[in-house]
Amino acid sequence: MRAITFAEYGGPEVLREEDVPTPEPGAGQVRVAVRVAGLNPLDWKIRSGGMAQGAPLDGVTIPGAELAGVVDAVGDGTDLAVGDEVFGWSDTGSYAEYALASAVIRKPASLSWEQAAAVPVFGETALRVLRALAVTADDVLLIHGASGGVGRFATQLAVALGATVIGTAGQRNLDDIKSLGAIPVLYGDGWAERVREAAPQPVSAVFDASGHGVLPDSVELLGGSERLITIADASAFALGITFSGGDSDTRVPLLEVVTEGVTSGKLDIQLGRNYPLAEAADAQRESAEGHSGGKITLAVG
Q1: pLDDT tens column, 245-294
Q2: Pairwise CA distance, residues 246 & 252, whole Å
Q3: Which in 4, 107, 113, 259 has the greatest CB count within 10 A?
Q4: For 232-249, what is each residue's pLDDT tens digit?
Q5: Sign of the four-CA dihedral 112, 116, 122, 128
């Protein structure tokens, strides 16, 4: 099968398109003929060596966590069947014609392949962190990076809960954040004072989805770190701040909740460019620049 691989850390140029063996599903797994793969910042962070301590490279690696496609083989212990359209997480890397998966759900007919590949990581992460923060209608929630993939889902979910949401972003995305029902605030130097000025009441919880060095000032803004979670800033460990990296046991139930919100029209998905699989290096370059304007995906099958 065709797949994008890398065997050493480096820039996008270390990615190679090559033929590799087609995997066979084990117990609890299905093999998916991938239609679209979702691209996440973690993909290029791993490729660059930036995550070497937590995710060391082990030989030839196929990147990619998210997929949407059609089941073409099943292992024991799964209720899915050949021909089912599914989306979720890949066990073997999604930048490939075929991938094994054990955490997928059936794709609603109303979702395109690109939309389906855009939901799992961003949607599950957003809902997981909001639940960990125990956000309610009584909260004033600050979301750093509210215009990003996770932040945009989190903004919509928190607004739906009735919380007052303040979202930081760049100038060009402030109107979009406002359209989602949040109070937009420009990020960068002086952001904390701008948040204080914009907040109708003191901030009671903070969700850092940006990873741009905002943790110390966020602690000061909150008066502590108890209701502060980051998904993007590894300095959290030294600062005693919660870093949320996910829980495989809750991925599928959370994905089902978010998917219902998408199909009902309550949650909007912002899509970016859909690249051919062979242009995965260019897709990762765009992701690393941080200005994609939506979820980047790869057309595989």
Answers
A1: 877 888 999 999 999 999 999 999 999 999 999 999 999 999 998 777 79
A2: 12
A3: 4
A4: 888 899 999 999 987 788
A5: positive
What is the Cα–Cα distance from 77 to 122, expressed in whole angstroms? 28
Could you tell me the two tokens for 196?
């204080």
Q: Record the tokens describing residue 155, joined without a space.
A: 């903004």
Contacts of 157 (CB under 8 A, 6+ apart): 126, 127, 130, 258, 261, 267
- Cα of first residue to Cα of last residue in the chain, in angstroms, is 11
Of 277, 270, 47, 22, the residue nearest 146 (C-alpha): 270
Tracing tokens 């109070």 back to the chain, one arrives at 183
Let me know if 72 is exposed, middle or buried by CB neighbors in 10 A (0-12, 13-18, 19+): middle
Q: Specify the amino acid at residue 81.
A: A
pTM exceeding the 0.85 threshold for the entire prediction: yes
CB atoms within 10 A of CB 245: 9
What topology does CATH give the domain 2-119+269-299?
Quinone Oxidoreductase; Chain A, domain 1 (3.90.180)
What residue segments make up the domains of the chain, in order of their start?
2-119+269-299, 123-243
**Alpha-carbon dihedral angle through residues 240, 246, 247, 248, given to the nearest 10 degrees:** -150
Q: Which two tokens stand for residue 214?
A: 């905002």
145 contacts 151 by C-beta, under 8 angstroms: yes
Q: Give the angle subtended at the CA of 281 by the CAs of 280 and 286, to the nearest 5°.
A: 95
List, in sequence order, every beta strand (DSSP E) within the chain: 2-5, 16-19, 30-38, 66-74, 85-89, 98-101, 103-106, 140-144, 164-169, 183-186, 205-208, 228-230, 242-243, 271-276, 295-299
* Fold annotation for 123-243: Rossmann fold (3.40.50)
